[in-house]
Amino acid sequence: MFDFFSNWRRRRLLARFDHERRARWQQNLDALAILDGLSPGEQTRLMELGWCFLHDKRFTPVMGANLTDDHCIDIALMAALPVLNLGLDAYGVFHELLIYPEEFVSDRHYLDDNGVEHQSMEELSGEAWEQGPVILSLSELGHSRQWSGFNLVIHELAHKLDMANGGIADGLPALPAALQNPWLEAFPNAFISQYRQAELAQSLPEGSAQANLAWDRLWIDPYGAENEAEFFAVCLEAFFTDPIALNLAYPPIYQLLSRFLGQHPIERAPQWQPLPHLCQN
Question: In this predicted model, what pLDDT tens digit does every residue of 65-74 receive, in sequence order?
Answer without folding.
Answer: 999 999 999 9
